[in-house]
From TrEMBL:
It comes from Catenuloplanes niger. This is Methyltransferase. Keywords: Methyltransferase, S-adenosyl-L-methionine, Transferase. The keyword Methyltransferase applies. Coiled coil: none annotated.
């Protein structure tokens, strides 16, 4: 490794220029520039004309994207999409377009600009910036809500595939996926384990495309969709209540309400399974910052948090429950946490 590239000086430069890089990538995603370039090679002049930009500034944008690894410049002024950039194409297998589009949306950036508000008050900067909470804002903007749901589904696919084979779901009769969104996670589980039946439970906007997911997976006979508010209750009689990336969205008080409702409405000997990031007690050297930035994003845009094992133990105790067992989901950054009555 180049010693200069590994120096503290270079590391600081990467950090302070990081915001500029995000703006560059955000514009490329909003323009769907990788899709426009496609599988071939395009020149700056042609792309500038297509987007209505000036040729000189367009060339500078394209070279910036090449320096960031999104594009390559095999010949002067001509550009192709790299494997990184391909993941930002709408039509690519495993596309990360929805996640990138959502996280770089100006709405998110505006809330982050007021991070200090959250640090001083403990409240969400998003609410302060927009006068409404994050999900209330989405509910009034169907296009942004659809983008959010697509981003959450995209983030669930890789985890769902690993989870389905890492935990013994086959021993349960009915699995209720609380906050299950479009059904991606439960569909992967039911496909791998042919015995259980399923229920996807979420808000009406959360399950807007769930029927499509279940139909595509051939699961309409084994899985139904229900809507409601998990702060009030959940479908009764489930043997396992699955909550993927649900409790991290709420503070301990409200997360405990969700857990208590699951425990109350479960069948005898029912279980609760959380799928969440499990933070170590201290930040290991060389650790990826993604989960810690996610934690701050939860502070800025809501009232949730990522948690350590001790944090989860305290949350469970607040709900009158206890952690029975945990397990890592390799290559995902997630863990499963099985919870029993206290």
């Amino acid at each position: 490794m180049d010693s200069a590239a590994a120096s503290p000086w270079a590391a600081v430069l990467r950090l302070v220029f990081g915001g500029m890089a995000t703006h560059v990538v955000a514009l490329a995603v909003r323009l769907r520039l990788p899709d426009t370039i496609g599988d071939g090679e395009r020149d700056a002049a042609g792309l500038a004309a297509e987007f209505g930009f000036q040729e000189g500034p367009m060339l500078r944008l394209l070279r910036g994207l090449a320096a960031l690894g999104v594009l390559a410049e095999p010949h002067p002024g001509r550009f192709t999409v790299t494997p990184v950039g391909a993941l930002l194409r709408v039509d690519a297998p495993g596309s990360m377009f929805p996640l990138a589009r959502m996280l770089t949306d100006p709405t998110m950036a505006r809330a982050w600009q007021n991070l200090e508000f959250s640090l001083r008050t403990g409240g969400p900067a998003f609410d302060e910036a927009f006068g409404v909470d994050f999900f209330g804002y989405l509910a009034a903007r169907p296009e942004l809500s659809e983008m959010y749901n697509a981003a959450m589904s995209q983030g669930s696919r890789g985890v769902a595939a690993v989870l389905a084979g890492a935990y013994d779901f086959g021993r349960f009769g009915t699995i209720v996926d609380v906050g299950g969104g479009d059904g991606t996670t439960l569909a992967a589980i039911l496909t791998t384990h042919p015995g259980p039946r399923g229920v996807v439970y979420d808000s009406p906007s959360g399950v807007a495309t769930t029927a499509r997911t279940l139909h595509a997976a051939g699961l309409t006979a084994r899985c139904r969709v229900e809507t409601g508010d998990f702060f009030t209750g959940v479908p009764a009689g489930g043997d396992l209540y699955l909550l993927k990336s649900v409790t991290h969205g709420w503070d301990d008080e409200r997360a405990a309400v969700i857990l208590r409702n699951c425990a109350r409405d479960a069948a005898a000997h029912g279980r609760i399974l959380l799928v969440e990031h499990l933070l170590p007690d201290t930040v290991p050297a060389g650790e990826s910052p993604t989960t810690y930035l996610s934690d701050l994003n939860l502070l800025v845009n809501g009232q949730g948090q990522e948690r350590t094992r001790d944090d989860f133990a305290g949350l469970c105790a607040k709900a009158g429950l206890r952690i029975a067992e945990t397990g890592a989901l390799p290559a995902t950054g997630f863990h499963w946490i099985e919870i029993h009555p206290g």
